[in-house]
Write a structure and sequence with these properties.
alpha/beta; five-stranded mixed sheet; 20 strands
Length: 1040
């Protein structure tokens, strides 16, 4: 079989939704792999190893060839024959994955469910099965190692080069906080105050180009809007637009030399007017209670403060006409930023309480009047423009709301909602602001092409949008970022008022780029999965918007040194570890878990997560496997409506972990004992967990003692306890030691069994205490977990009690039953009997000749059945033969003339005898003795001497056990008082023998019964009397 092709067939079936077929194909692949390995290995084995393998095949298959073994039997063969280690030694095939008992048991159970139509198969568990099969093939060198896959995408840092301040990590976050007043004063970051550098790093978005074109036309007297009210979310680019207007008209030479300038002139269709006066007022930088008024500031910048002195000092609006005169001398651009905050601060809380509302709001009222007059004045001048921003938040409580409302009434009719950054323009802005060089365009396009083709190959496993032709161009334009990282920051995190959209995205990504530039991890594109949440500044940037309580979520589940996601990655195979899938998926889920928009849905789908982390060459099923592990282990991860998200609300895992902490050791031991008793089985009599050896009863039948955990195999007291159990019973010596079997737990497996029992108890506790608070998905998940935990505990119990001891002529012997496999022996007794059968220590079919050989000494001619039986239970080293097999051997022997039975003076030979005839004291006669006796003339047979029965073995003690007197009586009268449940024994041992020699046999029976309360008429009439009538018996009765 082509193993790789078969695996791909299974993966395709899964992709197409044929879950059961995928599991079947995977099972067929595993069976074929094991058969092939067995045949490849045999010629290389030494004689001793060959004998070991042959024994393993016999035990696993009971005479079958390797091609006829089931998957469970094949696994049993490889384990009992120790072929896993031999394959590594002789073939250099690493099969270490198959040493995980629980994992392999899950595979076998999954394959059986798929084949026999058991419980519905879960897609993710089948996906995990196929992922593990791929790992197994790779470990065993049937697949090329991942490290050798050709054509992997080059890391982003080989092509792109960040700006120096980003590279060196000394980036001041304030660099991205544009401030108009700082630019006017010639302070702040160079990229803002230096017009040439500013235009070089400003991408000409459609929004900013349209704004500049409109203002240019207005100042040139060619139309355009007189008053523009810029309204964008915080950080959305309002201040950047104001700075662009300031530099464009204050430094026309640098502006017109830039790409932006060229596009503005082209769109406006007019030339730059000469002598444009640019006036600014930034509300957050002014003192409304003690500083100059806005009209005073504007007049001051024009050198005409004296014209406004009286109005300024009186803090009274100058009116429309004076303002018109102030701005009429030439093209004038007025830029006013954050005026709502200024108006809100114009009311003194102290004055409001002391002087009253009218007095306290006097200046604020004048401000509102001024802004109204200003819009009228500007609108009346053909070459004058006013661009103003308020704010989208509500600063200063009620005063902020009031100011915003009043100003909204004034500027509302002339509001221009501007999106300085639209759609994919954000990609260019980010790249231009953070990177000085993006590298060879051809190579960038190759990366975009390769990833896009990988998405197309994944089909429906990733969203349709990433498979579209447009997305390939998006990948190219966003390089070295994956578009989804910028999108999730801009659209989701940007909706938090404090994150500040474009500015926040730039600031945050600068931190991410700086960290990855230093780490140089082999990442082709920077994605949401690559946000370094372990970095304090990065983490703080996020949690300050969602709450400090998420610090513990990140530390517990995602990014601390002991985070659960990192632990999952640490357990992965080496070739998978490099993807860091668990941590990266958890990080991506975290980034998609939050939004400041009320209507936007939180969380992310599995398909989108696959698009986030997928790389060309990555095995298809790895993401599903990792997500399954995250679901089963992380404490704050939730899945709602098919979307993953983090929340501070504890998830089901969290509840289980806390419940596990409350489980006490005593509860674990008690539950473990219940499971041991449940799966003890019925093939043998069982004595579970005796405290002392003397407690083990001395039974004349096979019995199994299940030792308690403190007496695990290899524990200090175990050997002496077992030896004492074989030696003693009660106060005396054990009479039937060969009937005694002891099963001890494995010390290593015992710890794992305790953990699984603890987990099961915790699951039940969660169900009992939290069921009503769980949603339907968690309830269904909890039920599945309980069902699975019970299966695991069953496997653990069967695999833990595995060390079998029995007594032979040399003393106690031990054997390891090994790992349980699928089959009929699903009990501890069943496993013991199966092992004893395989090792010829137990026989269900003993030949009569063998029975004679073992039970009779050469000089013995006959002996009681109980003595024959006891040979197999008293003598160490003899095979264990259940009594039903002994009885059958005797019946067969009588029929075939190998044995005879002497009962009630009669010899039964060469005939069928009923099983009821074989009681403990009947005599079993050698065949040749019976043959000779049958051949003697009638009447020549010597009188047979009865052998008294031992007390308690089928006959009561007393006169009947004494030898018969020499004078033979002619009549007999017996008066008996016997337990009601021994009537059958009386019939077999007394009535039938007498009947055989009697010409008359009468029985008179006296029955005395006393009711607990009273006998019902139904019982007396319909049962007792009716039975006597049907038998035709005469009777009398006395009722009291």
């Amino acid at each position: 079989m082509d193993f790789v092709a078969k695996l791909r067939e299974a993966e395709i079936s899964l992709e197409q939704g044929s879950v059961a077929q995928a599991a079947l194909s995977g099972g067929q692949l595993l069976e074929a792999l094991l058969r092939s390995l067995y045949k490849e290995l045999l010629p290389k084995l030494s004689p001793a190893e060959m004998a070991q393998a042959t024994e393993g095949l016999e035990r696993a298959g009971k005479g079958k060839g390797v091609d006829d073994l089931t998957l469970g039997q094949l696994m049993g063969l490889f384990r009992t024959g120790r072929l896993l280690s031999l394959a590594k030694r002789h073939l250099d095939r690493n099969l270490s994955l198959l040493t995980n008992d629980q994992l392999v048991s899950e595979w076998i159970e999954l394959r059986n469910r798929a084949a026999h139509g058991g419980a519905e198969l879960d897609e993710e568990e089948v996906r995990a099965f196929l992922v593990n099969l791929r790992q197994l093939l790779r470990q065993a060198r049937y697949l090329q190692p991942l490290e050798e896959i050709k054509g992997e995408l080059p890391p982003w840092w080989e092509a792109a080069r960040p700006h120096r301040d980003v590279r060196e990590g000394g980036l001041d976050p304030e660099k991205f906080a544009a401030k108009l007043d700082e630019v006017v004063l010639g302070r702040g970051a160079d990229e803002y105050k230096n017009p040439e550098l500013f235009f070089a790093r400003t991408f000409p978005t459609k929004g900013i180009t349209t704004l500049l074109s409109s203002v240019l036309k207005r100042l040139a007297g060619e139309g355009g809007e007189a008053v523009v009210h810029l309204q964008t979310p915080f950080g959305g680019g309002k201040t950047h637009c104001l700075i662009a207007l300031y530099h464009f008209f204050r430094h026309p030479k640098e502006a017109l030399a830039s790409t932006l300038g060229e596009q503005v002139i082209s769109e406006a269709g007019v030339e730059m007017p000469d002598g444009v006066r640019v006036l600014t007022f930034v509300g957050v930088s002014e003192d409304p209670l003690h500083g100059r008024t806005p009209w005073g500031r504007l007049a001051e910048q024009l050198g005409r403060y004296d014209d406004m002195r009286a109005s300024d000092e009186a803090r009274m609006s100058p009116g429309k006409e004076k303002l018109r005169q102030l701005f009429s001398d030439g093209p004038t651009l007025i830029l006013m930023d954050e005026i709502a905050q200024y108006a809100a601060k114009a009311v003194s809380p102290a004055e409001l309480s002391e002087a009253g509302e009218l007095t306290a709001r006097a200046y604020q009222s004048q401000l509102f009047a001024f802004f109204h007059d200003l819009t009228e004045a500007v609108s009346s001048l053909p070459n004058c423009a006013l661009v103003v921003t308020l704010t989208t938040s509500s600063p200063y409580g009620e005063e902020g709301v009031r100011a915003q409302y009043q100003l909204g009434q004034i500027f509302g009719r002339m509001r221009k909602i501007l999106e300085p950054v639209q759609g994919e323009e954000i990609y260019e802005i980010v790249r231009r602001r953070l990177f000085e060089d993006l590298g060879d365009e051809r190579k960038r396009r190759q990366v975009a092409e390769a990833l896009w083709r990988a998405y197309r190959d994944l089909g429906d496993q990733v969203p349709e949008v990433v498979r579209s032709g447009d997305y390939k161009e998006k990948l190219f334009r966003a390089y070295p970022f994956h578009p989804e990282l910028i999108d999730v920051l801009h659209e989701r995190w940007g909706s938090f008022s404090g994150f500040q959209r474009t500015r926040g995205v730039l600031r945050f990504l600068a931190e991410v780029v700086a960290w990855h530039w230093k780490k140089r991890a082999p990442i082709s594109l920077l994605r949401s999965a690559d946000v370094p949440l372990e970095v304090g500044d990065v983490r703080q940037e996020l949690v300050e918007h969602i709450g400090r309580e998420y610090e513990s979520v990140i530390s517990s589940d995602i990014a601390s040194g002991t985070a659960l996601a990192k632990r999952i990655d640490g357990r992965m195979e080496e070739e998978v570890k490099r993807y860091r899938l668990a941590e990266r998926l958890a990080t991506a889920i975290f980034m998609y878990s939050f939004t400041g928009a009320e209507k936007e849905e939180r969380g992310v789908s599995p398909a989108w997560l696959r698009a986030v982390v997928h790389e060309p060459g990555m095995p298809v099923a790895l993401v599903g496997d990792s997500l399954q592990k995250l679901e089963s282990e992380l404490l704050f991860l939730h899945k709602r409506d098919g979307r993953y998200l983090f929340s501070t609300e504890p998830n089901l895992n969290n509840l289980i972990v806390k419940a596990e902490e409350e489980v006490e050791d005593g509860g674990i031991e008690a539950e473990l004992k219940r499971w041991v008793e449940k799966y003890a089985g019925e093939e043998l009599k069982v004595k579970p967990w005796p405290r002392r050896p003397e407690e083990v009863p001395d039974r004349r039948e096979p019995q199994l003692v299940l030792l308690a955990p403190p007496l695990a195999y290899g524990a200090p007291d175990t050997q002496s306890f077992v030896q004492a159990a074989f030696d003693r019973a009660g106060e005396g010596k054990r009479k039937y030691p060969n009937a005694l079997l002891v099963l001890a737990p494995d010390s290593d497996e015992l710890g794992r069994a305790r953990e699984e029992v603890k987990h099961l108890l915790a699951l039940r506790t969660v169900k009992a205490t939290h069921w009503e608070r769980l949603d339907e998905n968690d309830q269904a998940d909890l039920e599945r977990r309980i069902q699975r935990a019970e299966q695991v505990v069953e496997e653990r119990v069967l695999g833990t009690w595995r060390h079998l001891s029995w007594l032979d002529s040399q003393g106690p012997r031990w054997a390891d039953l090994g790992t349980p496999h699928m089959g009929p022996a699903r009990s501890l007794c069943g496993r013991v009997v199966e092992y004893l059968k395989d090792s010829d220590r137990w026989t269900e079919d003993i030949a009569p000749q063998k029975l004679v050989q073992l039970a009779f000494s050469p000089e013995e001619e006959e002996k009681q059945y109980r003595e024959v039986r006891d040979v197999f239970y008293c003598v160490p080293g003899n095979p264990v033969v259940p009594e039903r097999a002994l009885r059958k051997a005797i019946r067969d022997g009588v029929r075939e003339g190998i044995l005879g039975i002497r009962f009630a003076g009669s010899l039964h030979f060469r005939r069928e005898v009923p099983d009821s005839l074989i009681d403990p004291e009947v005599l079993i006669v050698r065949g040749e003795v019976a043959e000779a006796e049958v051949g003697k003339p009638k009447g020549s047979q010597e009188a047979h001497k009865e052998v008294p029965a031992a007390e308690g073995e089928g006959r009561p003690a007393g006169p009947l056990t004494a030898p018969m007197r020499k004078r033979s009586p002619k009549s007999l009268r017996l008066r008996l008082h016997i337990p009601w449940d021994r009537l059958a024994d009386i019939q077999r041992g007394v009535i039938l023998p007498l009947k055989g020699e009697s010409k008359r046999l009468d029985l008179t029976i006296t029955i005395e019964a006393e009711a607990v309360e009273e006998f019902s008429q139904t019982t007396l009439e319909e049962k007792v009397r009716e039975t006597l009538r049907q038998l035709g018996v005469e009777w009398s009765e006395e009722l009291r």
